[in-house]
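User: Hi! Is it possible to get a structure for several chains at once, not just one? Here's what I have:
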Amino acid sequence: SAVISQKPSRDICQRGTSLTIQCQVDSQVTMMFWYRQQPGQSLTLIATANQGSEATYESGFVIDKFPISRPNLTFSTLTVSNMSPEDSSIYLCSVEGIGNTEAFFGQGTRLTVV
Amino acid sequence: GQQVMQIPQYQHVQEGEDFTTYCNSSTTLSNIQWYKQRPGGHPVFLIQLVKSGEVKKQKRLTFQFGEAKKNSSLHITATQTTDVGTYFCAGSGNQFYFGTGTSLTVIP
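Assistant: Yes, the chains can be modeled jointly so their relative placement is included. Here is the combined structure:
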C-alpha cells in the first residue's frame, strides 16, 4: 500500500490567483495522477504526472491552466492557475491504479474560488 | 470515448435492506475495480475483478464481472449505516475511467 500526504486540505482563493497543491508519497511509485471531483460527481482525470518529462493531459485540460511538476518518484504538484469560480472543486492526487494495481488517493484538496 | 455509467445515481434504503449498483461500460474492460468514498472522504479501494464472469465476496458485499467484461455489479446484503457513501466502479480499457457513482443512504 501507499500512504499519500496531500496539502493543503482546503483553501479559499481569490479569482485570478493561483494555488499549488502538493502530493507526497511514502514510497517510490511509477504512476501518479491528478483528478478533479465536483461536489456529488465522479472523478475526472486531469493528467498523468510523468517523472522527468511533461505531464500527459486529458481532453479538456491544458498545461497552461494546470501545470504539473514531478521532480521525483515520490512527489508531485498541481497548480490551478488564474482561478475562476468554475475551478471550485476537490482535487485529488492518486498513485498507481492502471492495469492490475489498485489506486491510492490523497485526502483531497477542497478549493473554493471567490 | 470510453464511458462508464452507473445506475442508480442515488439509492435510499432502510437499514437491513439489500442494495445493488450496476456499472456498464461502452467498451470491453481488461479489469474492473470498485471503490467506496465516504462523505467528505477520498475513494478507498474495495476489490478488483479480472476474469469474465468472476464473482468475489467480501462479507456482505458481492461483486460480479459480466461475461462480456463490459458490466459489473456490487450487491450489499442487509445494509448497515456504516455502508453509507458513494460507490464507484473504475474500468481499465484503453484508459482508466471512473464510473458515475452511486450514492447510498441508509436510513436507521
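The longest strand of chain A covers residues 89-96. DSSP finds no helices and eleven strands in chain A.

User: Great, thank you!
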